[in-house]
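Hi support team,

I'm filing this because I wasn't sure whether my run with zinc ion finished correctly. The job status page said complete, but I'd like someone to confirm that the output block is well-formed before I use it downstream. Pasting the exact inputs I used:
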Amino acid sequence: MIYKGQFSPSKKDLKRPVGLFAMRENFQWKVKRSNKTTLHLVCIIDNCSWKLRAVKRDEGTYFQVRSFINEHSCHLEEIYHHHRQASAVIIGEVVAPRLQQHDGCLMRPKDIIADMKTMYGIQIMYSKGYQALHYALSLTYKTHEETFQLLSSFGYVLEEQYPGTITDLQCSDDGPSIRGFQRCMRHVIAVDGAHLKGRFGGIMFVATAQYGNESIESGISKVFPYATHTICCWHFSENIKKRFQRKDVADIMDKAARSYSELAYNRHMEELRNLHKGAFDYVIAAGPHKWSRVHCPQIHTATANVDTGRIH
Ligand SMILES: [Zn+2]
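And here is everything the job wrote out:
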């Protein structure tokens, strides 16, 4: 979705969705002008009316779409078999959400090639399909080694953050230790098994348990005295959208909240301050340690398919 007024942290970040848009709409664009403050794209067919112009605003560092004429005076009849906007990165982003196919198997380069052909009428080489697959995999899973490595460091961080916690990681071929679990734990809150794909295989069995009859809320403060109370950043961003009637402001706050590094967080916050001082003060007053990924003292972990509770 491209619209007038849209923000992007950089020219590169803007070119991606516009490239995807061009693939979907079956046309190609070329850069007419690109410098530190302006990005001007036009349809590849000479004299066609389609154009997009984005500029960096004086008060910020982001690019904003200033004019977007999404109408072609050209005939759009040509089928582009080798689409110039179809880079491995863009294709990778397109296929990333569908890496796992209906039959449970992972996409292969030839599936990506077939997909591009049916969805966009674009022909890509095997090598590009292969690169796109690897880019999509890195977006979704990281590598198997990296993710397995995280398991033991996750245990370590748990023990560090919550004194008294004991973690033990054992791998066996006999399946999860149900009897051991029943003997040690009471009042199970959530149990979930995730089938691990790839080279190592197996099932990771995750269970969260609580002692005694207390409620979750009072239980948490006793069992996890170092637990913190955080704000759901989706709801927070929705509140900002309503309160200040500015979607762009909420979008930038959302980017700041989800930033993994202090640097990116500061960059987005600087932009937010430039755009709307009131919203900036509001989110600061709410306490970045409650909504920002970099400032939250909690472990930054989310489960893929276990429902997690929020405490307000
Ligand atoms: Zn055109």
